[in-house]
Amino acid sequence: MYPASVTALIRQAINSIKNQSQFVRYLIIIFGILFSQYANAGLSLSQAIIHFEDDGKRSEDVEVFNQGQETLYVRVEPSVIINAGTENEKREVYRDPKAAGLLVTPQRLVVAPGARKRLRFVRLDNPKSASIDKVFRVLVKPEVGEVKANQTAVKVIVAYEVLVLSQPDNAKPQLKSSFDFTKKTLTVSNLGNTNVLLQKGFQCPEGQSTEDADNQCVELVGKRIYSTNTWQVEVPFTTPVTYQISTGLDNSLVTFEPDKNTQIKTNQLDNTNSKNNN
């Protein structure tokens, strides 16, 4: 789950500071607010990602929890993501769920302290009519009134997003890989019609494995690669690279070989960690 950025709010407060002593005083206040808010955040969600597989269920619920001591007034704003994962990615808020393909209801919630409410996500489009994934991000954000005070004040609002992925019919990623040992990079392209999440990657020096007690294997960063997207990661060695990949709710291990252009599937994994990775 992704808390919404509070950078703009902090910048606004700092811009109103006129001298160094005020800066130090406000800095202490800001950090105090940040740490107290994140330690006692009132709003939380049961999950941060929903997969609507091509042959799976068409609705799913997300629970909204209020772990704070004040009533939360929550606004829900769904958006469709255009050109997901590219430099031209664009977020469009929509008002017609049928045309967009996703209904989220209700769009306003009142959650008492210690209570929980359900958000229902319903897929409305036909997988057979889609050529690639439909990608949505749904903002779940508490609403607050204006600060009524004579002095500058900072409000820290912790909001979350739910990533929704609706697969097309016969969803299948198709990964193509290539190594450039001069630049020390691995490039992975997704030529399939659905996204794939690469995580828990590693690469070991020649002759070593992660099972060796004194291994020098290196963990590699991961990435969700959408259909038609290409991604590049730095690799320190000239040896194979292994990742856990998740497609929908299915997990497996793959190894990218330096002398091959495609991945080699090595092992099926349990369907875990698929609901909370963006």
From TrEMBL:
Keyword field: Membrane, Transmembrane, Transmembrane helix
SUPFAM superfamilies the UniProt entry points to: PapD-like
Alphabetized InterPro entries for the sequence: Ig-like_fold (IPR013783), PapD-like_sf (IPR008962), Periplasmic_pilus_chap (IPR050643)
Entry keyword Amino-acid biosynthesis: no
Annotated transmembrane regions: 23-39
Name assigned to this protein: Molecular chaperone
